């Protein structure tokens, strides 16, 4: 493994290249950082079932507890056979399945990592110091994640800092360039060559992946933005002002407000997800409620279809896989919910095990043993891997001799 001064990796176990010549199932692809004449497209390796021997085990089995972060786990992402996690201690860890060992650990900047997304051979991380950092996997130095840019870029700064009209008032007696965030960047979304960043400074910014240029800055909310998701030319932003706002654009125009999804009064919206190809929108409330809206057939308005008290304390994060919605809460539990056709949800189980609030969730879309894998990060500094059966599996009895043999196999896989 090759190290350079620009590659702040401090731990690795490079048995498998981080790049592969195949198309990853969980990540989009981009051009290689080799010669432009090279026609190969590189990304993280294709997903392989990390637990091929895990069949129908007893409900909500904990497969692993991963420790290594120096702070609370703040965000997660899945990319092929890799799990990416970041913490309030500014460290980022790449875990490789199926052994779930640390593949790489690195970090830079001031304050915690708030969000991360991947695209092809690049990773984008949002930080408490109001910057977005771009990391690239280099084919020339395999298994290296190298810091290649910080947003806004120096080029973007130089093109705007001399002109007074490029400055905006952010706080009393404070002015910043409109291309820079004035507070922590709390969330990121990526879609069709664009990166969207939401911040505690109440703004939503749009960046172009190809040249890392900031294209737009939108004064989006009356309070901090906590969550973002983008799909089919629409961007959904969830805010502490209790609203989820929908932003859209046509052709080369700027983003405009397309709709407002009202939550409960004086209740923060902490997260937002989309289901059913964007027809259903779910928001996580600080009052413990999960709310859902359905987009009409004309794609012009949204109707409230779900208002469910999911937890006793604030819902901090949401994720979805198939017909299931998962919610992580400050009460240290994870709720498993199944969606009905109209958008309502009903409980099929609760996962307990974390010793602190559950801050982030990701679910794999690949079926494993009649269920799916769920990854959770918590303020207890751990990342946990769970096997969640589909509803039919959850209702099975677990006392038969064959079931005992199955559970023994699970134990062997994990050890």
UniProtKB/TrEMBL annotation:
Residues 13-41 have a biased composition (Polar residues). WD repeats lie at residues 178-217, 218-247, 351-386. Residues 12-41 are annotated as: Disordered. It comes from the Eukaryota. Keywords: Repeat, WD repeat. The keyword Protein transport does not apply. It holds the Pfam family WD40. InterPro entries: JINGUBANG-like, WD40/YVTN_repeat-like_dom_sf, WD40_PAC1, WD40_repeat_dom_sf, WD40_rpt. The keyword ATP-binding does not apply. SUPFAM superfamilies: WD40 repeat-like (SSF50978). This is Uncharacterized protein. The lineage of its organism: Eukaryota, Viridiplantae, Streptophyta, Embryophyta, Tracheophyta.
């Amino acid at each position: 493994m090759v190290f350079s001064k620009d590659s702040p990796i401090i731990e690795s176990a490079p048995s498998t290249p981080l790049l592969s010549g195949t198309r990853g199932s969980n990540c989009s692809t981009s051009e290689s950082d080799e010669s432009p004449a090279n026609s190969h497209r590189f990304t993280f390796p294709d997903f392989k079932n990390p637990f091929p021997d895990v069949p129908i085990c007893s409900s909500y089995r904990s497969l692993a507890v991963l420790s290594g972060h120096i702070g609370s786990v703040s965000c997660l992402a899945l990319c092929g056979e890799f799990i990416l996690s970041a913490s309030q201690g500014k460290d980022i860890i790449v875990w490789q399945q199926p052994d779930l060992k640390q593949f790489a650990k690195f970090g830079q900047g001031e304050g915690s990592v708030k969000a991360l997304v991947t695209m092809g051979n690049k990773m984008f991380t949002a930080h408490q110091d109001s910057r977005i950092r771009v990391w690239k996997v280099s084919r020339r130095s395999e298994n290296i994640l190298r810091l290649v840019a910080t947003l806004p870029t120096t080029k973007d700064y130089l093109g705007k800092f001399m002109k007074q009209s490029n400055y905006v008032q952010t706080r009393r007696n404070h002015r910043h360039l409109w291309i820079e965030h004035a507070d922590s960047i709390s969330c990121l979304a990526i879609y069709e060559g664009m990166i969207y960043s939401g911040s505690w400074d109440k703004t939503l910014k749009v960046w172009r992946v190809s040249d890392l240029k900031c294209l737009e800055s939108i004064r989006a909310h009356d309070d901090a933005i906590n969550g973002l998701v983008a799909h089919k030319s629409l961007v959904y932003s969830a805010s502490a002002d209790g609203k989820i706002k929908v932003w859209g654009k046509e052709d080369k125009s700027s983003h405009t407000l397309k709709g407002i999804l009202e939550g409960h009064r004086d209740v923060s919206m902490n997260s937002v997800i989309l289901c059913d190809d964007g027809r259903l929108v779910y928001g996580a409330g600080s009052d413990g409620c999960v709310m859902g809206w359905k987009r009409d057939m004309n794609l012009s308005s949204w109707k409230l279809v779900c208002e469910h008290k999911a937890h006793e304390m604030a819902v901090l994060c949401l994720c979805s896989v198939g017909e299931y919605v998962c919610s992580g809460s400050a009460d240290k539990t994870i709720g498993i919910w199944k969606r009905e056709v109209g958008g309502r949800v009903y409980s099929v189980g609760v996962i307990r095990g974390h010793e602190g609030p559950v801050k982030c969730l990701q679910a794999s879309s690949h079926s494993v043993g009649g269920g799916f894998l769920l990854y959770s990060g918590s303020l207890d500094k751990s990342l946990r891997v769970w096997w969640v059966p589909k509803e039919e599996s959850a209702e099975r009895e677990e006392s038969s001799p064959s079931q005992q043999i199955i559970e023994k196999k699970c134990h062997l896989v994990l050890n």
